[in-house]
Amino acid sequence: SERRSLNKETSTLIAHKVQLALELGITPILCIGESEAERVAKHTETVLASQLQPVIDEIGIDKFANVIIAYEPVWAIGTGKTASADQAQAMHAVIRGCLAAADMGNTQILYGGSVNAANANELAACPDVNGALVGGAALNIEAFTVIVKAFTEQS
């Protein structure tokens, strides 16, 4: 998600990268998410759809079974802020809805955005959250162990 904001990578360029990764036999992790300003303006669903659609157009909906999506709200990356479990679930459901035409629930959708030992159980309990994209919390073995246990016990 930071590459979109920091390196000005477009959704079309990211779609080409996803296609290339698939051609090379690599499972891509497609990170999508909104800025804090976009969330406050209530544009989150539009932003997520606009980040997904170019990839759908590039690779076709049927190939999403070979792509992992990470919902990573930009406002939560490395800030210590995190989406509530309700917010994460709602956005994961929106993403699943964008893929519903042919996906049939096969695409794995991770939550990334200040996942930590304190919020892992609540996030893992969300029905549309299939795992976590862990950042700084992975540097602490005790915290990371709690996160891993939270998600493995939910599956």
Mean pLDDT: 90
In N-to-C order, the SSE pattern is: HHEHHEHEHEH
Q: What fraction, in percent, of the residue positions are helical?
A: 40-55%
Q: Cα-atom Rg, whole angstroms?
A: 15 Å
Q: State the strand order across the main sheet.
A: 1-2-3-4
What's the helix count? 7
Strand content: 5-15%
* Low-pLDDT residue spans: none
Label the overall shape. Answer: globular
Q: Could you describe the largest sheet, including whether it forms a barrel? A: 4 strands, parallel
Distance between the termini: 26 Å
Backbone structural class:
alpha/beta
Instruction: Count the E strands.
Output: 4
What attributes characterize this protein structure?
47% helix; four-stranded parallel beta sheet; alpha/beta; 155 residues
Q: What would you say this structure looks like, in words?
A:
The protein is α/β, with parallel strands linked by helices and 155 residues long. It is built from 7 helices and 4 strands; from the N terminus they run ααβααβαβαβα. The chain has helices at 2-6, 11-23, 36-40, 44-59, 85-99, 120-124, 141-154; strands spanning 29-32, 68-71, 108-111, 131-132. Strand 2 (68-71), helix 5 (85-99) and strand 3 (108-111) form a beta-alpha-beta unit. It is globular and about 40 Å long. The two termini are 26 Å apart.
